[in-house]
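As promised in the previous annual report, we have extended the structural survey to additional targets. Below is the entry for Tyrosinase copper-binding domain-containing protein.
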Amino acid sequence: MLYTAPLLVAVCFLATLFQTSIAAAIPMAVRDDATTDGHRGGDRGPGPEHKKCEKLLERREWRTLDDDEKANYISAVQCLMSSPAHNPPIKEAKSRFDEFQAYHISIANDVHVTGEFLPWHRQMVKSYENALRNECGYKGTQPYWDWALDTDSAESFFASPIFDPDTGFGGNGVLGTYTLPPFGDDSRINATAFLGCVADGPFKDYKLSLGPGKLITTHCLTRGIDPSDRIYLNSAAVKNTTDLPTYEEFRIELEGEPITPTHKLHDGGHAAVGGDMSNFFSSPGDPIFYLHHANLDRTWWRWQSMKPSRLYEISGYTSSTPPFTNVTLDYPLQMGTIGNTVPIRDVMDIHSEPNCYTYV
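The corresponding structure token record, generated without further manual editing, is:
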């Protein structure tokens, strides 16, 4: 099962990232401005001081919410799904929910396999949380999905509360209920990941306007849950990632293929859910996307919190293909119409303004 991403080789593209292992890592060009500690340029900060927040929103794991809190979150997501798009980069995006997916599709090649991968997705999830609260009256916070609680358990992966049809996001796709339209390699679609339409839960009747991949199609929410990917999401995999000493090593290990020869926390989570969630471009079409990336953000924050010097540590290239420049704390995180475009330094400390949230 694949969550596809572009290689740092201009003449070659991967069409089946979650299925094909890459024997060698992406080549890291030797640069005059590269540091000698495993970084590809970048900053260690901290730069201008950001005001500490007087109050922090507490993001919690999905299964710790009571049924009313879960229902309120689901209702807010459904509100975005029924609200008109503002000014999406893809005109076929109909809803505000679609608009977030559309922007991810349009910018995906720039925000994966690059130094901005983690800060960009941090700002995207925060922008989504802001939309739920400011546009749909949601009083809660963005929950996260701690997959290690499911993958360390002896219970079936399908038994995860995230897939509950009544208090979760619905379960697996049903075989034979969805047929992929014709697609090219540029959509990075792994056909085996699309088992079928989700038949239960709060989103079983929702119609996506975009995807899979770069396709523009109206279709059901699809999944193809693959329990074999649970090995990439257990507590041992998390520890292997957070034990790494530099941001560049941590980010590469967390992001996964094609930089690493096997799945890791990021692509492993996408692959485990399958369907729309498995696609490099259009994965935000599944609402689980935001709980998955909130947990990746939580993992990054855990790593940052281990040493004061990590709070503003950033490195990596600004592009997945040449010509390369190095990410710095002043590099802008483009959000288009889904949120505020801010420099990386503004999102590094989640306990400082304008972020003001924490994980519990």
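Confidence is low (pLDDT under 50) at residues 4-39. The chain has one domain: 57-359. These points will be discussed at the next consortium meeting with the crystallography subgroup.
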